[in-house]
Design brief:
- The chain is α/β, with parallel strands linked by helices.
- The strands form six sheets. Strands 1, 2, 3, 4, 5, 14, 15, 16 and 17 form a nine-stranded mixed β-sheet that branches. An eight-stranded mixed β-sheet has the order 20-19-24-23-26-25-27-28, with helices on both faces. A five-stranded parallel β-sheet has the order 6-7-8-9-10.
- The chain is elongated and about 90 Å long.
- It starts with a helix and ends in a 6-residue tail after the last strand.
- The protein has 16 helices and 31 strands.
């Protein structure tokens, strides 16, 4: 708030000056008291000037009688990766603002792994001036492990170079919890840097318990969004963690943690989406979906809203946000129905931005130069021979892809060998898996076998490959694997399906090989075509491209493939394809 805005708010609240907006006869969701109160709200420019019976007949440029409709503060998503939506921040904003989400905390971990500090500065510029508050946490794990090649590295110096930005609110999820527990100076330094800048060191502690959890939290790490069971969530709450309850597209934890979402836990619970894919974003929404599901599950509606507004703002030290009270930003959601949390009208900073599920105006992109995030797919020279796996023994390791999970299993199988080389065998659902370094650095090609897809022909490939985002491809035919890779390089990144040397379907993702400027409905249509193409090739996984994108994630068990080869995640080391001589 500027001095001029403060003077205006005082003048409007005292009645010496007319307000810009008066909302009469609202049923206010008061996140401070946990009550629903009949009242009136007087707005002065961007800020709320006064709330109560005393302003019922105040002078204002615009007066709207809400007729008893419920009024909630704008929602804030406490942790997400916008890259998972495959679209730019302005397109993301257009999808969630009409639903009552007026702010997000974005960890641009994916773009950071591809484009480093310049990529994150592009994110800040691209999201500038949107009718959606976009705060950032600086990615802390670039790379996530030493067993992969990334486009960039973010060390302590790079992280510190970003922490002074006013829209940076913390250091993002510190995923290297084994290193933290061992007292690694680099990882401890990341948490301490956040503290030095009076910003939040964010956690990532899946299944940590007992002494390990206490050791991890002794660093000052403040939050966690990885709890999947009631016992895990309760232990973390008892240990002082700001418990982020997550409901993403794959990781859906709200139901398990629902008994913890109750008013006695005060400001210690926040709602986050983490990763939401285009279909779920369009069909279910963003963090508003958690509010809706929580209310449906029996959570007090006012507390459900608080977990997606005031609690998140308080955690990140975001002043004047997350509540409806004098001096707070006028981020307001008029509800058609409280039980379903359906937004009728949305105000951002005192201006109406959405009505009846539609935006008043399309958000404009920030003045960002795309040079930092274009031209990011540089493959080594490839031929069909690049995908050849020489005969390696009687038993080999094979990744088993699991439906609707990011976990994998390690199998031991006898390979199918032809002409002295291991080949894909669709009759046994043994397919070739390739991870190709695409940042123009090493030219590494990691090769392995995978089961679970069920492809009978062709190949699927994409440049979304967590967390390093090298190119991942699965297929039956070396020729089709090659065609898929070459097409992705031509597109500058994306997702493709190939059969008999022809591209069946594709989605170009030319920005960091991860996102597109296309509108969400167009992205959804192309994803549907890709899924249909995969089905025509025999795929039997519910989300084949999402599953493929996680097969390189070398921080989640059991067996993964990076550009450097197969990774035994539990042992934290590279392992050969063959299990013995």
């Amino acid at each position: 708030m500027t001095l001029e805005e403060a003077r205006l708010a005082v003048a409007v609240a005292s009645g010496r000056s007319p307000g810009s907006l008066l909302l009469r006869n609202a049923q206010l969701l008061n996140v401070f008291t946990g009550t629903i109160e009949p009242t009136h709200i007087l707005v002065a420019g961007r800020f709320i000037a006064a709330v109560g019976e005393s302003v019922a007949d105040a002078d204002a440029a615009e007066v709207i009688d809400l007729g008893g409709a419920h009024l909630a503060p704008g929602l804030i998503d406490g942790h997400l990766h916008i890259e998972s939506s495959l679209v730019t921040p302005d397109t993301y904003a257009a999808a969630i603002l009409p639903r009552g989400v007026t702010g997000v905390v974005w960890d641009p971990h994916e773009i950071g792994n591809v484009a480093g500090v310049p990529g994150i500065r592009w994110v800040l510029e691209q999201s500038e001036g949107l009718p959606l508050d976009v705060w950032l946490t600086v990615p802390s794990c670039v790379p996530s492990t030493p067993l992969e090649t990334t486009g960039a590295t973010l060390g302590l110096a790079e992280i510190e170079s970003l922490l002074a930005h006013p829209r940076v609110v913390g250091v993002a999820e510190i995923m290297s919890f084994p290193a933290v527990i061992e007292g690694d100076s680099e990882n401890l330094g990341k948490a301490l840097l956040a503290e030095a800048y009076r910003k939040s060191p964010e956690g990532h502690a899946p299944s940590l318990s007992g002494r390990d959890l206490q050791t991890y939290l002794a660093t000052g790490i403040a939050s966690d969004h990885e709890s999947t069971t009631l016992a895990e969530g309760l232990e973390k709450l008892q240990s002082g963690v700001f418990l982020m309850v997550r409901e993403g597209s794959v990781t859906r934890n709200l139901e398990a943690l629902l008994p913890l979402v109750e008013p006695r836990h005060g400001d210690r619970i926040g709602f986050v989406t983490d990763d939401r894919l285009p279909h779920d974003l369009l069909d279910e929404g963003g963090v508003d979906f958690l509010v809706r599901r929580a209310i449906h599950g029996g959570v007090d509606p006012v507390y459900a809203v608080r977990c997606a507004s005031f609690n998140v703002a308080r955690h990140y030290r975001l002043p004047r946000r997350g509540a409806i009270a004098p001096g707070y930003l006028a981020d307001l959601v008029v509800l058609d129905d409280l039980d379903t949390f359906r937004a009728a009208t949305v105000y951002k900073a005192g201006k109406r931005v959405a009505e009846g599920g539609r935006l008043e105006a399309t958000p404009a992109r920030g003045p960002a130069d795309p040079a930092a995030v274009t031209g990011t797919v540089t493959l080594p020279p490839l031929t069909e021979a690049s995908f050849r796996i020489g005969a390696v023994g009687r038993e080999v390791r094979c990744i088993r892809a699991l439906p609707d999970q990011v976990l994998t299993e390690e199998l031991r199988v006898e390979p199918t060998v032809r002409d002295g080389a291991v080949v894909a065998d669709p009759e046994r659902d043994l397919l070739k898996l390739a991870c190709i370094e695409r940042h123009g650095k090493t030219g590494n090609v990691g090769l392995g076998l995978v089961t679970g897809f069920g492809l009978r022909a062709g190949a699927l490939a994409g440049t979304v490959g967590h967390d390093h985002h090298n190119l991942l491809a699965v297929g039956v035919s070396d020729r089709d694997l090659l065609v898929a890779c070459r097409r992705l390089e031509e597109l500058g990144g994306g997702v493709v399906a190939v059969a008999d040397g022809e591209v069946l379907a594709e989605l170009a993702l030319p920005l960091a090989g991860l996102v597109t400027a296309e509108p969400l409905p167009a992205v959804r249509a192309k994803l549907d075509a890709l899924e249909a193409a995969a089905t025509s090739l025999g795929n039997r996984l519910p989300s084949p491209y999402m599953t493929l994108s996680f097969l390189g994630l070398a921080v989640i068990p059991e067996l993964r493939l990076t550009d450097r080869g197969l990774v035994d995640v539990r042992r934290g080391e590279l392992v050969p394809l063959a299990t013995g001589p």
